[in-house]
C-alpha cells in the first residue's frame, strides 16, 4: 500500500510538473505573440515639402514602433502636445521613413528641425495619408503681393543692418528660416550688399510665429547671390531722389523705425538744398502754425485707409521736421490704431486745425479685415456705398456730430467725395472726414496790390510765396534790332544762339546763388556796346521789380481766420478792421536784385545786401462780402527799400 501510495504521489507530482511546464510554454508563446514585428521599413520618397508634419498630441514618440519589443519612449504625449503648439519654427517636424507591422499598423520616423527629438510615432493603418500621432502641416503660408500696400509694392529696399547675424533680419535665406528641413541661408554676410537696392516679389508668414517674410530680388542683378527671403522688419525703404526744394517725411511704425507706412513730400517755392525747413526760436527748433496744420492734414490724408493715425505733432517731432534740410528726409513715428474690430471701419472727424474731434466705428456683420467697405462705380473712377450702408453711416454721423458745434465740410449730408473716401476704406482700418464749425463761415482774405496813388482798378492779385526771393523765371531779351556788331563772337549767354534771342532767364532765388551771378556775368559780358549793356542792366532790374509787385513772403501768415455766421453779410470796414489789426496789415514783397553797370555782381546777397530790395505792401481797405466766401483786401506800395 505504501508502495502504491508513493507511486501514485509520484505520478501526480509528475503530472503536475508537466502541466506547469506546459503552462509556462503556453505563457511564453502567448507573451511572444504580444509584440508586433516590422514587415516593411523604407525611406519616404515623396517631395520633402509634402512630408512636413505636426504632432497631434494623441501618441507618444518612441525609439522604434511602440508595439515592438524594446521600444522606449522618446517624448510623452504631454511633450509632443507642447511641441505641436510651439510658436518656434525650429520645432517644425519632417517625416522621412515609414514602417508597417505585421498587424497592419503604420509608423513614421520623424525629426524636429532642430534635431532635439527623433523617433517613431504611430500613424494608423494607411501610408498614403498622415494620421494617428501626426498630421500634415504647412510651415509657411504664401500670400498674394496685394497683401502689401501699393507703396510697399512699388518701393525699393535696402537691408537695414547689414552683417553676419543669423537672426532673420540681417542676411537672406533660400527659404524663410526653419520652414524647410536643412534649407539654410542664401548668403552668410550681407555687408557686401549694403548699398544694393531690392524689390519685393513674394510675401508670406511663418505659421508658428506669424511673422512676415518677403522674398527680395536685387534691382541691379536678377541673379544676385543675395536674392532670397528675409523678415520684412529687416528692410528699410531706399529713398527716391528728393527735390532740392522739398523734404520727405516718412511715416513709420512706432515699434519699427524701418517700417515705412506712408511717405509725404513737402515742397516750398524758392527753398535751397541744405537749408532747414523750420527755424530756431530762442534755442528751440520750430515751424509756423500754418505749416503745422498743413503737415498734419497731409499726414492724415496719407494715413487714410491704414491702421495708423497721428492726432498731433509732438514738440520733438516738430523739432525733427524743423531741422530737416531741404533735399533730405526725416522719419516720424505714427500711432497704431487700437481696438478696431476686424469687421469695423473707424471714421475720424478732423477739424480745420488738423486735430481730431471724435470718431465712430461702422460695423458690418460678416465683413473681413482688409476687405473694402464699398465698391468701384462701373465706368467711373469713383467708389460708392450700398444704399443701406450709406443710410447707416449717415445716421451714425448725424448722431455723433449732434450738438458738437461741427458739421461735415460742405453740409450735413455726405458728399460724393466723402462717400468715395469711406468706400475705399478697409475693414480693420480707418478714414478721415473733414468737419467745420457750424457757427463760423470762413472768408479767405485775398490780397490785391497797387502803386500808391494809382486807381484801385489797377490792383493786381498778390501771390504768397514761402521763400525770400521771387520764384517765377525772369525773361529779358535784347531788342531784335540790335546788330551783330553790338556783341562779341560766340556769346555764352544763357540760351543765346543768335543776337535776336539773347535772353536772360533766371529766378531771383537762383541769382542769389553764385551760379546765377555767373549767368548774369556771361550774359552781360557778351555785349560790346556800352549803351546796350546799360539798357540790359536797366531792363533786367525792371523785370525783377515788376515781379516783386505781385509776390509777397507768406511764411507764418494765415489768411483763413476771418469768420462769422455762415451767409451773414459784412462790410468792407469790418473786413479791413480785421486785416488792420492782424499780422496781415503789412506784407513784405519778395527780395529783388537792383543792378548798376559798374557794380560787383559776383557776391551773394549777404555779402552784397545793399543790392537787394523789397516793397512794403500796406493795407488800406477791403470789399464788402458774405461770411463763407473769399473777400479782397487792398494794399498799396511805394518805392522799394
TrEMBL record:
<protein>
    <recommendedName>
        <fullName>S-layer protein</fullName>
    </recommendedName>
</protein>
<feature type="signal peptide">
    <location>
        <begin position="1"/>
        <end position="27"/>
    </location>
</feature>
<keyword id="KW-0732">Signal</keyword>
Amino acid at each position: 500500500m505504501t508502495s502504491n501510495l508513493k507511486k501514485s504521489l509520484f505520478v501526480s507530482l509528475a503530472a503536475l510538473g508537466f502541466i506547469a511546464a506546459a503552462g509556462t510554454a503556453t505563457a511564453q508563446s502567448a507573451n511572444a505573440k504580444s509584440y508586433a514585428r516590422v514587415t516593411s521599413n523604407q525611406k519616404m520618397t515623396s517631395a520633402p515639402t509634402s512630408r512636413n508634419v505636426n504632432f497631434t498630441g494623441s501618441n507618444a514618440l518612441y525609439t522604434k514602433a511602440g508595439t515592438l519589443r524594446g521600444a522606449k519612449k522618446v517624448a510623452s504625449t504631454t511633450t509632443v502636445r507642447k511641441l505641436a503648439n510651439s510658436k518656434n519654427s525650429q520645432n517644425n517636424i519632417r517625416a522621412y521613413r515609414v514602417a508597417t507591422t505585421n498587424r497592419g499598423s503604420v509608423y513614421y520616423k520623424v525629426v524636429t528641425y532642430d534635431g532635439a527629438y527623433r523617433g517613431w510615432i504611430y500613424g494608423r493603418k494607411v501610408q498614403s495619408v498622415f494620421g494617428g500621432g501626426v498630421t500634415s502641416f504647412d510651415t509657411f503660408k504664401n500670400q498674394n503681393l496685394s497683401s502689401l500696400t501699393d507703396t510697399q509694392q512699388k518701393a525699393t529696399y535696402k537691408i537695414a543692418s547689414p552683417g553676419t547675424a543669423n537672426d532673420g533680419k540681417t542676411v537672406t535665406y533660400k527659404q524663410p528660416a526653419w520652414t524647410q528641413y536643412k534649407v539654410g541661408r542664401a548668403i552668410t554676410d550681407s555687408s557686401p550688399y549694403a548699398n544694393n537696392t531690392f524689390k519685393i516679389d513674394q510675401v508670406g508668414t511663418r505659421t508658428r510665429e506669424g511673422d512676415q517674410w518677403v522674398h527680395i530680388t536685387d534691382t541691379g542683378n536678377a541673379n544676385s547671390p543675395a536674392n532670397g527671403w528675409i523678415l520684412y522688419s529687416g528692410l528699410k525703404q531706399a529713398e527716391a531722389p528728393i527735390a532740392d526744394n522739398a523734404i520727405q517725411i516718412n511715416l513709420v511704425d512706432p515699434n519699427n523705425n524701418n517700417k515705412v507706412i506712408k511717405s509725404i513730400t513737402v515742397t516750398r517755392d524758392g527753398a535751397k538744398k541744405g537749408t532747414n525747413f523750420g527755424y530756431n526760436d530762442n534755442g528751440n527748433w520750430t515751424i509756423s502754425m500754418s505749416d503745422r496744420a498743413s503737415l498734419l492734414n497731409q499726414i492724415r490724408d496719407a494715413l487714410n485707409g491704414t491702421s495708423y493715425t497721428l492726432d498731433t505733432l509732438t514738440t520733438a517731432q516738430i523739432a525733427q521736421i524743423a531741422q530737416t534740410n531741404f533735399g533730405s528726409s526725416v522719419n516720424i513715428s505714427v500711432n497704431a490704431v487700437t481696438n478696431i474690430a476686424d469687421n469695423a471701419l473707424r471714421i475720424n472727424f478732423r477739424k480745420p486745425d488738423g486735430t481730431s474731434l471724435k470718431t465712430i466705428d461702422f460695423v458690418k456683420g460678416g465683413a473681413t479685415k482688409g476687405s473694402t467697405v464699398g465698391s468701384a462705380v462701373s465706368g467711373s473712377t469713383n467708389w460708392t456705398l450700398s444704399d443701406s450702408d450709406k443710410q447707416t453711416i449717415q445716421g451714425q454721423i448725424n448722431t455723433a456730430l449732434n450738438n458738437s458745434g461741427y458739421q461735415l465740410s460742405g453740409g450735413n449730408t455726405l458728399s460724393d467725395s466723402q462717400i468715395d473716401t469711406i468706400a475705399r476704406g478697409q475693414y480693420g482700418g480707418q478714414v478721415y472726414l473733414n468737419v467745420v464749425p457750424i457757427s463760423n463761415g470762413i472768408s479767405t482774405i485775398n490780397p490785391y496790390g497797387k502803386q500808391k496813388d494809382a486807381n484801385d482798378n489797377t490792383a493786381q492779385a498778390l501771390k504768397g510765396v514761402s521763400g525770400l526771393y521771387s520764384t517765377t523765371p525772369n525773361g529779358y531779351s535784347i531788342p531784335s534790332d540790335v546788330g551783330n556788331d553790338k556783341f562779341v563772337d560766340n556769346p555764352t549767354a544763357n540760351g543765346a544762339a543768335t543776337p535776336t534771342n539773347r535772353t536772360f532767364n533766371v529766378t531771383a532765388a537762383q541769382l542769389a546763388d553764385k551760379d546765377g551771378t555767373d549767368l548774369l556775368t556771361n550774359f552781360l559780358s557778351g555785349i560790346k556796346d556800352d549803351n546796350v549793356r546799360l539798357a540790359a542792366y536797366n531792363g533786367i532790374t525792371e523785370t525783377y521789380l515788376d515781379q516783386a509787385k505781385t509776390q509777397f513772403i507768406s511764411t507764418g501768415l494765415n489768411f483763413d481766420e476771418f469768420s462769422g455766421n455762415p451767409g451773414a453779410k459784412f462790410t468792407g470796414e469790418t473786413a479791413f478792421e480785421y486785416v488792420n489789426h492782424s499780422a496781415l496789415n503789412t506784407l513784405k514783397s519778395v527780395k529783388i536784385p537792383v543792378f548798376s553797370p559798374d557794380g560787383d555782381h559776383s557776391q551773394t546777397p549777404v555779402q552784397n545786401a545793399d543790392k537787394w530790395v523789397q516793397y512794403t505792401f500796406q493795407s488800406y481797405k477791403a470789399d464788402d462780402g458774405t461770411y463763407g466766401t473769399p473777400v479782397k483786401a487792398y494794399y498799396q506800395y511805394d518805392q522799394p527799400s
